[in-house]
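2024-03-11 09:14:02 DEBUG pipeline.ingest accepted 1 chain
2024-03-11 09:14:02 DEBUG pipeline.ingest length=310
2024-03-11 09:14:03 DEBUG pipeline.predict start
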Amino acid sequence: MPIKIPDALPARHVLESENVFVMGESKALQQDIRPLRILILNLMPLKIATETHLLRALSNSPLQIEVEFLMTSSHVSKNTPREHLISFYKVFDDVQHQKYDGMIITGAPVELMEFEAVNYWDELKNIMDWSVENVTSTFHICWGAQAGLYHHFGIQKYPLEKKMFGVFDHSVDYPEEPLLRGFDDLFPAPHSRYTSVSKEEIMNKEGLMLLSHSKEAGVYIVMSKDRRQIFVTGHSEYDAFTLKEEYERDVAKGLEIEVPRNYFPGDEPSVPPQVKWRGHASLLFSNWLNYYVYQATPFELKDIRSIPKV
């Protein structure tokens, strides 16, 4: 089944070239079906690239999905054309009286700042509080995962000695959980961050479950015990060249940055990278959509607040 997106969204042409089934708004209006409504709070600076990454990941499902994009009103993006934001994004005032089957909160390049120092922190807190009563399941990514763990559960982040950068193997720590259904015992996923959270603090926190971790990269997937909140510290949605582009950007800025580990064959940046995580990414997002959104959401969205906790 297709993803319903605006007719003119740039990601549409990229996805269609990859034979991903997308449906424009004009055609979707002719169908008599209730698609899953997914709200994406895009905090990444390169919003157009992130849109493509996430829509590609969400496409590997038999479910029909209607996607809306949300941005903060307290911070103006400098890396995305204003015309694009006006055309395709809403702010919280536009959506706060609506309900959604699922929500994604992306990462953001502010992880070395204290949460309270981020200029849109108060707005993000309001959105996260609103999501508890108005969204069936929320999927947090990278800094978005750290922000959600801190706001909802008081889990602190801490700085790393150097950037966690590359593709790392992860274990399946909770094999009976449907989110991990179909995962290999060890599976790769990309990371790109300067901060982390404590495995011990997660495991000792009432209300949280550690589903997956890495010996090198640490905590990877955490879920609330009511299964309404999922926190993923890496970037399974990244495409083949995202880490390469981040590496070249940091080199151009003169930053001290190591070659992303386990990414370029032979750790040689002149050699095209190999994608090892595409199967995992497809399973992660399709399992989330199936078991935590589609099978958990009420037929009438107005009933979301009454979903019983597991």
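2024-03-11 09:14:41 DEBUG pipeline.report The domain at 3-153+198-234+282-306 is CATH 3.40.50.880 (Rossmann fold).
2024-03-11 09:14:41 DEBUG pipeline.predict end
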